[in-house]
Structure prediction request, 497 residues.
Amino acid sequence: MYDFFFVLIPRHMPFLLEGALVTLEISLLSMVFAVLIGLACALGRLSGGRVLPRVIAVYVEIWRDVPLIVQLMVIFFTLPQAGISLPAFWAGVLGLSLNVGAYLSEVFRAAITSIDSGQRDAGLSIGMSRLTVFIRVILPQALRIAVPTIGGYFISLLKDSSLVSFISVSDLLRHGTILISNTYRSMEIYFMVAIIYFVMSSVASIAVRMVEQHLTPTYLRAGAAKAESRRAEAARVPA
Amino acid sequence: MSAPAARPLVEIRGLRKSYGQTEVLAGVELMVAKGEVTFLIGPSGGGKSTLLRCINFLETPSGGEIIFDGERLCHEDGNLFHHAPERVLREARARMPMVFQHFNLFAHRTVLQNVTEGPLVVQKRPRAEVEAEALAILARVGLADRASFYPAQLSGGQKQRVAIARALAMRPSLILFDEPTSALDPELVAGVLDTIRALAEEGMTLVVVSHEMKFARHLADKVHFVAGGHIEESGTPDRIFDAPESERLKSFISSILA
Prediction:
């Protein structure tokens, strides 16, 4: 016990926290790209074209049906064959964003289609263009519906990003395994790694809840809260 | 009631609308004079709402001609149906806003923002002027004290009056009403009808789809009976309600009164 708190933690924590920082970076970056990919794919699928929606549907299906770790491996080992050399970190970002983006595209699609068509009619009837209706009327309401689900995906991503350690990204888990191979103190090191993941995830959940509350306008906080939770339920796509 | 010599504000000729095989409008002829209150009545499924939504192109007609304030929104050339470019349609829509059965207020905006949205975003008028005018309009519909509320905090009747205020803020030439009281609790209907009546008395041109027959009778300059995808009978309210000619209108009126 003494050894764990007063020797191992002071000695190894800094190196682990360095890894945790990479975990945070890769998760945040991937989330930003995933949101962009998800939104773009949702729009593409709702665009009503003939080809684009099908292409996107195939992408979403494939990415949801292959394990994330396999996706990361395929990207990491395929890109160099194709003449693209990507540092492990960015291969990780690419893999994670494509994966979460596929899920988010469904979240956005559900959120956008859950907005009553009367909202669109109302915008058009005062002379707005379709684009203006989307940007000023549909999207702000859809985003509010999607935010809790997006937050949930971010917290999952924070943990799932540990898989990038298998493609040699120096994240928290990888720094842990490096320490273990040097010290042979598996139990203690994994314990520290677990604690750091736990702290990061709980802080992230609190942050997500705060953002959610901040975004939920007064009109939804009181009476309409039930309707809102129903709509959020509709927007939630089982992972 | 006496037809003005000037050109009608809305001229509709041979308007058709089909959804696939189903023909909803089968050649509608309709003129609306400036300052006139027009009621469209008729059985559900007869095409009233579709007609209204075709006038402002929320639904694209399948054929026929619509001229709004001298501007041709669509017409047929031989067998080809043409409509004006999207920009022209948008400008026309902005001058004939619609009030919907289910209000369709922007749920994420306050009452005041609902009313100012069109003038600010579509007409690009200066904010100070728009907000002052919006508050004056809200006062007119009796909702000055609700300006900072969200739609979800209002009763149905209040929502519908906000929707009317939103339409008025566009400084419209014409307001389209699509069953404005059908979704309201009975005790809230009167307030909305009073608001519509006040507009009519000020000389605003109104086209109203409604099941409020008493109201139609008191307010309308002209009543059109829409059934089976066309206007079956037209006339003054007294003519339509007291001396219906077609069998369909007779049975419709007796079913309403029963």
